[in-house]
Design brief:
Belongs to the ABC transporter superfamily. The protein has 9 helices and 10 strands. It has 240 residues and is an alpha/beta fold. The structure holds adenosine-5'-diphosphate and magnesium ion (MG).
Length: 240
């Protein structure tokens, strides 16, 4: 579903992605972890071309992402992206936030968009918040709206960049629960997170990055219990 072939990226002189090779299968759940500044956000932002690359190729469901001829709007419509910050429109209701892209990008009728938006709000446990404004919701609820907004586009892939890092501890669980449910539906997911419990429960693979490189990959239990590199072991000891 997602393929990185010798991907290299620089920010000026900083080699931020160094020969990344990676294959993510349909339905696979990949957790990416690593120290701050190791290139995790940059890696997933390249998947829907929020960032350009200088060398190599990324192919999403057969589409060469960084090819000039690639239709970006169509590509991004198929890839849901959930950020650390929720990026909801404060002047629009929850329902309007979730309906926006289906109407504007998928060109759905308002009635169809409302139907799918309500379905997705139910899926994230927020049926009764459709008429509320983002400012009236807790952080955990806002992040669940952001997930519903991504799902309303019926994406092929969901990308998450530290989705629980901005949340108060008591709200992390409700967001992770929604993500776990998504896994059971077979969604292809790429999740930057340090939530080890989540990774152990649902990840097919954990990928550890440091200084722009993939240093180690493995099954979650193998990775966390028996890391193969000093860098990974050191990192794991710090997040425990
Ligand atoms: P992570 O998500 O693992 O914390 P990032 O992918 O955000 O790491 O950043 C990797 C490196 O690239 C860091 O050194 C960061 O400072 C740098 N970086 C990120 N975005 C930019 C940018 N737009 N311009 C210049 N440097 C950047
Ligand atoms: Mg980051």
């Amino acid at each position: 579903m997602i393929e990185f072939k010798q991907v290299n990226k620089w920010f000026g002189k900083l080699h931020v992605l160094n020969d990344i090779n990676l294959d993510i299968a349909p339905g696979e759940v990949l957790v990416i972890c690593g120290p701050s500044g190791s290139g995790k956000s940059t890696l997933i932002r390249c998947i829907n071309r929020l960032e350009p690359i200088q060398k190599g190729q990324i192919i999403v469901d057969g589409v060469p992402v960084h090819d000039k001829a690639t239709n970006l709007t169509k590509l991004r419509a198929d890839i849901g992206f959930v950020f650390q910050q929720f990026h909801l429109y404060p002047h629009m209701t929850v329902l309007q936030n979730v309906m926006l892209a289906p109407v504007n990008v998928r060109k759905m009728s308002t009635a169809d968009a409302e139907k799918i938006a309500r379905e997705k709000l139910t899926q994230v446990g927020l049926t009764d918040k459709a008429g509320a404004y983002p400012g009236q919701l807790s952080g955990g609820q806002q992040q669940r709206v952001a997930i519903a907004r991504g799902l309303a586009m019926t994406p092929k892939i969901m990308l998450f960049d530290e989705p629980t890092s901005a949340l108060d501890p008591e709200m992390i669980g409700e967001v992770l629960d929604v993500m776990v449910n998504l896994v059971s539906e077979g969604m292809t997911m790429c999740v930057v997170t340090h939530e080890m419990g989540f990774a152990r429960k649902v990840a097919d693979r954990v990928l550890f990055m440091d200084m722009g490189k993939i240093v180690e990959t493995g099954k979650p239990d193998e990775f966390f219990d028996n890391p193969q590199t000093h860098r990974a072991a050191d990192f794991i000891s710090k997040i425990l």
